Amino acid sequence: TQSDSGRGVFPGLRHEEARLQEQLWAAEEEYRYKRMQTTELQEDIQGMNRTMEMLAQEEKVEHELMKENQSRSAQLKKELDSQNEKIVRATKQCSKLTREIRSANQSGGGRSFMERDIKLREMRTSTGPSPHAAGGEGGPAPPLASIHQSLVQVQVNYCVQYEKL
């Protein structure tokens, strides 16, 4: 029987074959493990790329918002400067008009007729009607005169207020 004699001739063959089978199994196992690691790393990279794209998009949106806010801030600053210039011009004009009115009428302690009239009307309204009021009987002033008086009073108060500044 040759097979018996063949086994005897190569006694280490079975042992070598078992060792090689074990190495093959270990190599295949390592290959599967490395392949799994590679797949996981690729998935991680894809996830990181998606995150990076989202962050880049968010950064772009934030940058645009920042530019819009800076633009709006600059616009509001220009509007504020314009309003301040208008206030300065109005204040100067009120001061000039007040000086002109007072210099045109030196009587009454430097106050104009309108200013004295307004003061007199204020005193009348705080103490009640007098027999010398418009209409001659202590009644209310005619509607147009009342509106005119209120308008003049507002204008003078506005000018006097800004003159003090």
TrEMBL record:
> Which region ranges are annotated with the description Disordered?
120-146
The entry assigns this protein to a family as follows:
Belongs to the CCDC39 family.
Q: Which Pfam families match?
A: CCDC39
Endpoints of the signal sequence: none
Coiled-coil regions listed in the entry? 38-107
GO biological process, any: epithelial cilium movement involved in determination of left/right asymmetry
Q: Which UniProt keywords apply?
A: Coiled coil
Can you say what this protein is called?
Coiled-coil domain-containing protein 39
Spell out the GO cellular component terms annotated for this protein, sorted alphabetically and separated by semicolons.
axoneme; extracellular region
Q: What InterPro entries does this protein map onto?
A: CCDC39 (IPR033290)
Q: State what this protein does.
A: Required for assembly of dynein regulatory complex (DRC) and inner dynein arm (IDA) complexes, which are responsible for ciliary beat regulation, thereby playing a central role in motility in cilia and flagella. Probably acts together with CCDC40 to form a molecular ruler that determines the 96 nanometer (nm) repeat length and arrangements of components in cilia and flagella. Not required for outer dynein arm complexes assembly.
